[in-house]
Amino acid sequence: KFLVSGYESAVLKAMISIDRYITFCSTMIFAFGATxxxxxxxxxxxxxxxxxxxxxxxxRRYAILGIVTASAIITPTPDAYNLTLLAVPMYVFYxxxxxxxxxxxxxxxxxxxxTD
Length: 116
Known about the structure:
By secondary structure, the chain is mainly α.
Protein backbone atom coordinates (compact mmCIF):
# COMPACT_ATOMS: atom_id res chain seq x y z
CA LYS A 1 0.00 0.00 0.00
CA PHE A 2 2.91 2.31 0.73
CA LEU A 3 4.29 2.19 -2.82
CA VAL A 4 0.99 2.84 -4.59
CA SER A 5 -0.67 5.26 -2.17
CA GLY A 6 0.34 8.30 -4.25
CA TYR A 7 -1.35 6.91 -7.35
CA GLU A 8 -4.77 6.28 -5.84
CA SER A 9 -7.69 8.54 -6.65
CA ALA A 10 -11.44 8.52 -6.20
CA VAL A 11 -11.74 6.33 -9.31
CA LEU A 12 -8.62 4.14 -8.90
CA LYS A 13 -8.02 2.12 -5.75
CA ALA A 14 -5.09 -0.20 -5.11
CA MET A 15 -6.39 -3.75 -4.74
CA ILE A 16 -3.11 -5.32 -3.67
CA SER A 17 -3.12 -7.96 -0.95
CA ILE A 18 -0.41 -10.17 0.45
CA ASP A 19 -2.58 -13.23 -0.24
CA ARG A 20 -2.76 -12.52 -3.98
CA TYR A 21 0.97 -11.75 -4.08
CA ILE A 22 1.93 -15.00 -2.32
CA THR A 23 -0.41 -16.99 -4.57
CA PHE A 24 1.04 -15.41 -7.71
CA CYS A 25 4.65 -15.95 -6.62
CA SER A 26 4.14 -19.53 -5.50
CA THR A 27 2.30 -20.41 -8.72
CA MET A 28 5.08 -18.95 -10.87
CA ILE A 29 7.83 -20.63 -8.82
CA PHE A 30 6.08 -24.00 -9.07
CA ALA A 31 5.51 -23.56 -12.82
CA PHE A 32 9.13 -22.66 -13.53
CA GLY A 33 10.33 -25.50 -11.30
CA ALA A 34 8.18 -27.96 -13.22
CA THR A 35 9.54 -26.54 -16.48
CA UNK A 36 13.09 -27.42 -15.44
CA UNK A 37 12.02 -31.03 -14.87
CA UNK A 38 10.85 -31.61 -18.47
CA UNK A 39 14.25 -32.85 -19.79
CA UNK A 40 14.65 -35.21 -16.83
CA UNK A 41 11.18 -36.66 -17.34
CA UNK A 42 11.82 -37.15 -21.06
CA UNK A 43 15.21 -38.69 -20.28
CA UNK A 44 13.69 -41.15 -17.81
CA UNK A 45 10.93 -42.12 -20.25
CA UNK A 46 13.53 -42.56 -23.00
CA UNK A 47 15.72 -44.69 -20.76
CA UNK A 48 12.75 -46.92 -19.96
CA UNK A 49 12.01 -47.29 -23.67
CA UNK A 50 8.58 -45.68 -23.46
CA UNK A 51 9.50 -42.86 -25.86
CA UNK A 52 12.21 -42.27 -28.43
CA UNK A 53 13.60 -39.16 -30.09
CA UNK A 54 11.81 -39.86 -33.38
CA UNK A 55 8.46 -39.94 -31.64
CA UNK A 56 9.21 -36.66 -29.85
CA UNK A 57 10.23 -35.01 -33.13
CA UNK A 58 7.10 -36.26 -34.93
CA UNK A 59 4.81 -34.99 -32.17
CA ARG A 60 6.58 -31.64 -31.79
CA ARG A 61 3.62 -29.59 -33.07
CA TYR A 62 1.31 -31.21 -30.52
CA ALA A 63 3.89 -30.63 -27.82
CA ILE A 64 4.01 -26.93 -28.73
CA LEU A 65 0.22 -26.76 -28.52
CA GLY A 66 0.30 -28.52 -25.15
CA ILE A 67 3.07 -26.26 -23.88
CA VAL A 68 1.21 -23.08 -24.84
CA THR A 69 -2.05 -24.41 -23.40
CA ALA A 70 -0.39 -25.45 -20.15
CA SER A 71 1.36 -22.08 -19.92
CA ALA A 72 -1.95 -20.28 -20.42
CA ILE A 73 -3.59 -22.34 -17.68
CA ILE A 74 -0.68 -22.15 -15.22
CA THR A 75 0.03 -18.43 -15.45
CA PRO A 76 -2.49 -16.55 -13.34
CA THR A 77 -2.61 -13.47 -15.56
CA PRO A 78 -4.39 -13.17 -18.91
CA ASP A 79 -1.54 -11.39 -20.69
CA ALA A 80 0.68 -12.89 -23.37
CA TYR A 81 3.87 -11.74 -21.66
CA ASN A 82 3.65 -14.19 -18.74
CA LEU A 83 2.46 -16.94 -21.06
CA THR A 84 5.51 -16.42 -23.28
CA LEU A 85 7.76 -16.14 -20.25
CA LEU A 86 6.81 -19.70 -19.31
CA ALA A 87 6.21 -21.26 -22.75
CA VAL A 88 9.57 -20.39 -24.32
CA PRO A 89 11.74 -22.04 -21.64
CA MET A 90 9.38 -25.01 -21.58
CA TYR A 91 9.83 -25.49 -25.34
CA VAL A 92 13.61 -25.07 -25.06
CA PHE A 93 13.69 -27.74 -22.36
CA TYR A 94 11.54 -29.98 -24.57
CA UNK A 95 14.18 -29.69 -27.31
CA UNK A 96 16.95 -30.36 -24.77
CA UNK A 97 15.00 -33.45 -23.72
CA UNK A 98 14.95 -34.66 -27.34
CA UNK A 99 18.72 -34.26 -27.56
CA UNK A 100 19.21 -36.12 -24.26
CA UNK A 101 16.99 -38.99 -25.41
CA UNK A 102 19.02 -39.25 -28.65
CA UNK A 103 22.30 -39.35 -26.73
CA UNK A 104 21.09 -41.94 -24.23
CA UNK A 105 19.64 -44.16 -26.98
CA UNK A 106 22.90 -43.97 -28.91
CA UNK A 107 24.90 -44.95 -25.83
CA UNK A 108 22.51 -47.83 -25.06
CA UNK A 109 22.84 -49.16 -28.61
CA UNK A 110 26.65 -48.87 -28.47
CA UNK A 111 26.73 -50.66 -25.11
CA UNK A 112 24.59 -53.50 -26.45
CA UNK A 113 26.76 -53.84 -29.55
CA UNK A 114 29.96 -53.94 -27.51
CA THR A 115 28.60 -56.70 -25.26
CA ASP A 116 27.50 -58.85 -28.23
